[in-house]
Amino acid sequence: MHFIFADAMGTPVWHWAAFLALVLGLMAFDLGILYRKAHVIGIRESLQLSAFYVTLALLFALFINAKSGSEAAFRYLTGYVVEQSLSMDNIFVMAVILSYFAIPRAYQHRVLFYGILGVILLRGVMILSGAALIDRFHWILYLFAAFLILTGIKMLVSADSEYDVAGNPVLKFMSRHFRVTSSLRGDRFIVREADAHTGRLRLFITPLLLALCVVEIADLIFAVDSIPAIFAITTDPFIVFTSNIFAILGLRSLFFALSALLHRFCYLKYALSLVLVFIGAKIVLAPLFGFDKMPPALSLGITLALLGAGVVASLWKTSDAASNEIESGEMGEIAPSPIADLSSASVGIQMEGSETRSSKA
Question: Does a structural domain hold residue 255?
Fold first, then answer.
C-alpha cells in the first residue's frame, strides 16, 4: 500500500497510475463505444470531441494548480498550448499521408486511433529518457535550446516545403520485404489471401497498415522537435508527459475538423517557428536579464500572442479565397491520390491481383 504513495520522478505513483488509467479509459470508450463501427466523422462530431478533450486538459490544469501551485499550472498550460499548436503541422502531414494511400474517411479514424496508441508509447519512452538525462546532465537543456532555435530557423526557411510520402524509408522497406495487397481490404491491416503465382494462402499487409506505419514515423520525427520544446518549458516529467498526452488525444479529433481547412492557416507554420525560437532563446537569455527562469505567465502570454498573430494573419490573408470557396461550393480538402500510385517504381510495392480470395487473418 505504501508503494502507491511513493515518489516517482517527483510525483506520487498514484498520480501516474490515475492519469494512465484515465487515458486507457478514454481510449477504450473511444474505440469500444463511440467508434465501434467505422463511419465518416463529420466536422460537428469532430469539434464536439475536440471540445471535450480541451475541457479535460483545462480541468487537469486545475489539478496541477492544486497539487503544485500556479507556476506549475502555467508551465503545464504553456506546454499544452505549444504541443497542441505543433500538432497543427502534424495534422497536415497526416492528411497528406492518408490522401496518398487513398484511405476513405470512414477508415481514417482506425488508422489515427492505433497511431495514437503507438505515439503514447514512443513519447513516454522519449520523455522518461529525456528526464533521466536532464536530471543527470542539466547542461543538456542548453543543447535542447540550441536545437530548438536551429529547428525554428529551418522551419521558417522551409515553411512552404511539402512532405514526401513516397520517399519515406520505412514505406520503401515494407514495400520491398512484405506482400502488399493492391487495394484496401475494408478496415483490416492484415489479411490472408491466395498468392497469385502459387495459389497458396499467404499473409498480406494492406495499404491501411502502410499508412499507419508512415503516420507513426511522421509523429516520431515531430516528437524530436516537440519533446525538447516542452523540456525547455519545464523539466517536471509529470507535467511534460501529461501535457503531451492531452495534446495527442486532442490531435485525432482535431484532424477531422481541420484537415479540410488547413490551407486557411498559411502563416501558422511561421508562427510555430517563432515559438520554437522563443522557447529556445529564453533558456539562454533569461539569466542575462536577471531571471533564473522566465516567469511562466509571461512565457505563456508571449506564446499565445505569437500563435494568435499567426492565426489572425492567416485568416485575413485567405479571407478572399474562403469567400470564393463558399460561393463555388468547394471545401478545399486535400484530394486523395489514386491507390494505383502505390505501384510506382519509387515505392516498389508488390501488387497482387484484385480478384484474389480473402479471409480475415
Answer: yes
